[in-house]
Write a structure and sequence with these properties.
It is a single chain. With 554 residues, this protein is of the alpha+beta class. The protein has four domains: 69 residues, 2-Layer Sandwich (Phenylalanyl-tRNA Synthetase, Chain B, domain 1), CATH 3.30.56; 190 residues, Phenylalanyl-trna Synthetase, Chain B, domain 3 (Phenylalanyl-tRNA Synthetase, Chain B, domain 3, 3-Layer(bba) Sandwich); 68 residues, Phenylalanyl-tRNA Synthetase, Chain B, domain 1 (2-Layer Sandwich), CATH 3.30.56; 186 residues, Bira Bifunctional Protein, Domain 2 (BirA Bifunctional Protein, domain 2, 2-Layer Sandwich). Helix content is 29%, strand content 28%. It has 15 helices and 28 strands. Strands 4, 5, 6, 7, 10, 11, 12, 13, 14 and 15 form a ten-stranded mixed sheet that branches. Strands 19-23-24-28-27-26-25 form a seven-stranded mixed sheet, with helices on both faces. The protein has a three-stranded antiparallel sheet with strand order 1-3-2. Strand 2 and strand 3 form a beta hairpin. The mean pLDDT is 94.
C-alpha cells in the first residue's frame, strides 16, 4: 500500500513559497513527488505518494521542499552545523534489546498548534511505515530546557518507574505495558527481553521508555516551545539514522537551528562515537551516453545539471566521463545510475520529450499460458466451480504449519509484516483460507485458482511456475470427486492421466496420489488430512488437487 498523508493546504503552499494553484494544476505539480490528490476539502488535502523509497516525502515539509527546490534550485541542508557539545551514553546491555540511538536539538522555531500537529504527524508516519510500527525506528520530542546533559540510554529493570505521558501517577515499565493502551500496542516489541530501554538525563529524570511512551515531565511538547530535543531509537542502524536526518532537515526548513549530539557507544559496537544527525552524501554517476540511451534523445550537459539541481542534489559535477551527482542528506534511495536518470526525467517533465510514433506495427495478444488458463477456467466454470484470487505473498505459518506443505517457501529478506513474509510455493493454503471463512454457505463448496508460485531450486535460484488447484468441500467430498474433475480436464485437453502412490502429509495416507500427465509427474491429488482441516477450522471433509497448468497444454 502506498503512503498517504494529510496536510494543511495553507501550510503546504506557504512552505513551498507558491500561490495556491488550484487542484488541477496541483495534480500536475505533484508528479515531482510521484503523488496525486486523494481528497481535497477546504484547507485539508490528502495526498497519495506512489514511491515507497522516499520516506522524506511522507510529510508536508518533504512535499513542499520538492516543489520549492524545483522552482528555485537546490538548497543547503544541515551545512555548517556547530561542533557537538552534548552527549548521550549507550548502555552495553541494550545491544540485543534496542541498541541504536540518534539525536539533535532544534532551537528558534516556535510551532503553533497546526505546525506542532504536522510535526507529530511526520513523527508517527515515519515510525509506523518506515520504522515498521516503531520496531526498527521510533522518534520522540522533548523540551530541551528540562533536560540535564549528558543523557544515558540504558537497560532498565521492568520495575523502574516514572510518570508516563498522559498520566498523573508513577507507573512501572511493566504497568505501562499492561495498563496503558499505547503500552499494550507496542508490548510485543519487548517480548522476551529481561531489561528494557530507558532514556534519562544526568539528574535521573526519565525522558522516555522507548519505543512506548514519553514521560509526562519532559516529553509533553506544547505550542510555542522553541527549544526542542529530538531522539530516534531502534533496532536498525540505517533506519534510525535516516529518520533522524529527515526530521532534522524538516525542522531546519521550518526555521530551527540544528545542533548535533555526540552518541557514545560501548567498545563492542561499530563506530564507538557517532555525531548525529549524520549528513549522508550518497553519490551516483552516469555517462552522457547512458543518459541519452535511456531517454531516447540527446540532452545538453548543462540541462542535465540544471535538472538535477532542481531535484535538490547537493552537488552536480560534469566531466568527460559523464555526470556525478550527490544526493541531499535526507535521501538514501539512489542505488544505480538509472535512479539519477529518473530524477532527470522527473525534473524535465514529460512535456520536454517529443512523442514518437512506433516504427513497427505489432499486434498484441495473450501469452499462450494465459490462453490455456482461460480455457481451463471455462471448463471449471462449467463444472460449477468458482474462481478465487489470492496474493502471492503470504506467511510461512500458513504454508508450513497450517497446511504442512513439504517444501519451504522463499522468504522475503526484509518484509513489512510476517503476514507477508514469504512468496507462496503452493495454491492450496489460499483455497483453504477461503474455505475456512465459508462455513455459512450451502455445501458443497467447489473453488479453484490458477496463479503464480515461486519454487526454490537446488542451484540456489528460483523458478516461477503457474499452477492450478481445485478444492471440493462438503459432507460427501472424497477422492473420487477430485479425481473426476481432473479426469474431465485431462479428457477435454486430450492428455493422458495416471496416478501413482505417494506419501504427502497434507493428505490422508492411502487416499492421495501423484498426478502423472502424459508420462510426467505434474502434481498431487487426495483427501485433505483432518489435522490440516482442523488447523484451518474447517469441519467438513475436503478433497483437492494441485498441478502444473502447462501439463494440460497437450
Amino acid at each position: 500500500m502506498m503512503p498517504k498523508i494529510e496536510v494543511s493546504r495553507q501550510n503546504l503552499f506557504e512552505q513551498a513559497r507558491i500561490e495556491d494553484p488550484g487542484d488541477e494544476k496541483l495534480a500536475d505539480i505533484l508528479s515531482l513527488v510521484k503523488g496525486e490528490i486523494d481528497f481535497s476539502d477546504g484547507d485539508s488535502l490528502k495526498l497519495e505518494l506512489n514511491d515507497t523509497n522516499r520516506p522524506d516525502l511522507w510529510c508536508v515539509e518533504g512535499v513542499a521542499r520538492a516543489i520549492r527546490c524545483w522552482n528555485s534550485g537546490a538548497e543547503q541542508h544541515l551545512s555548517e552545523l556547530p561542533e557537538p557539545d552534548m552527549d548521550i551514553f549507550v548502555d552495553p546491555g541494550l545491544e540485543k534489546v534496542r541498541p541504536f540511538v540518534a539525536a539533535f536539538t532544534a532551537c528558534g522555531w516556535a510551532p503553533d498548534r497546526s505546525e506542532l500537529d504536522a510535526l507529530i504527524d511526520v513523527q508517527e508516519k515515519l515510525a509506523a511505515s518506515f520504522g515498521k510500527n516503531r520496531k526498527t525506528a521510533g522518534a520522540g520530542f522533548y523540551r530541551l530546557d528540562d533536560i540535564k546533559f549528558p543523557i544515558r540510554y540504558r537497560a532498565a529493570s521492568p520495575e523502574t518507574s516514572f510518570v508516563p505521558l498522559g498520566s498523573e501517577k508513577e507507573m512501572t515499565l511493566s504497568e505501562i505495558l499492561t495498563d496503558t493502551e499505547t503500552g499494550r500496542t507496542y508490548a510485543h516489541l519487548l517480548e522476551g527481553k529481561d531489561l528494557w530501554p530507558l532514556l534519562e538525563d544526568t539528574g535521573g529524570n526519565v525522558l522516555s521508555f522507548p519505543p512506548v511512551l514519553n514521560s509526562q515531565t519532559t516529553g509533553r511538547v506544547s505550542p510555542g516551545d522553541s527549544r526542542l530535543f529530538c531522539e530516534v531509537t531502534g533496532t536498525d542502524w540505517e533506519t534510525v539514522q535516516l529518520t533522524s536526518t529527515i526530521l532534522a532537515c524538516n525542522l531546519q526548513d521550518r526555521g530551527a537551528e540544528i545542533s548535533p549530539i555526540r552518541v557514545n557507544y560501548p567498545e563492542n559496537y561499530p563506530g564507538q562515537t557517532v555525531v548525529t544527525p549524520i549528513i549522508f552524501s550518497d553519490t551516483l554517476t552516469a555517462s552522457m551516453e547512458s543518459i541519452h540511451g535511456v531517454l531516447g534523445m540527446d540532452i545538453p550537459p548543462q540541462s542535465v545539471r540544471e535538472a538535477l539541481r532542481r531535484m535538490d542534489y547537493a552537488s552536480v559535477e560534469l566531466d568527460r566521463s559523464g555526470v556525478t551527482g550527490i544526493l541531499p542528506p535526507y535521501r538514501r534511495d539512489g542505488i544505480h545510475a538509472v535512479d539519477m536518470i529518473e530524477d532527470i526525467v522527473i525534473s524535465l517533465g514529460f512535456s520536454y520529450f517529443e512523442p514518437l510514433l512506433p516504427e513497427q506495427f505489432t499486434l498484441g495478444k495473450c501469452a499462450p499460458i494465459e490462453d490455456l488458463a482461460d480455457a481451463v477456467r471455462i471448463l471449471l466454470a462449467g463444472a460449477d466451480f468458482e474462481e478465487i484470487l489470492r496474493p502471492v505473498l503470504t506467511s510461512r505459518a500458513k504454508i508450513k504449519d497450517a497446511t504442512r506443505t513439504p517444501n519451504d517457501p522463499v522468504s522475503i529478506a526484509n518484509p513489512m509484516t510476517a503476514e507477508h513474509g514469504v512468496v507462496r510455493n503452493t495454491l492450496l493454503p489460499g483455497l483453504l483460507e477461503v474455505e475456512s471463512t465459508s462455513a455459512h454457505a450451502a455445501y458443497p463448496h467447489r473453488i479453484f485458482e490458477t496463479g503464480e508460485v515461486l519454487t526454490a531450486c537446488e542451484d540456489g535460484y528460483c523458478r516461477t511456475e503457474i499452477l492450478l488447484a481445485c478444492l471440493i468441500c462438503g459432507n460427501k467430498a472424497d477422492f473420487g470427486d477430485a479425481h473426476s474433475i481432473i479426469g474431465s480436464l485431462c479428457h477435454s485437453r486430450a492428455v493422458g492421466l495416471s496416478l501413482a502412490d505417494i506419501d504427502d502429509k497434507r493428505f490422508i495416507p492411502g487416499r492421495c496420489a501423484a498426478v502423472t500427465i502424459d508420462g510426467r509427474i505434474s502434481g498431487v491429488i487426495g483427501e485433505l488430512h483432518p489435522e490440516v482441516l482442523d488447523s484451518w477450522g474447517i469441519s467438513s471433509p475436503a478433497s483437492a488437487f494441485e498441478i502444473e497448468l502447462r501439463a494440460l497444454k497437450g
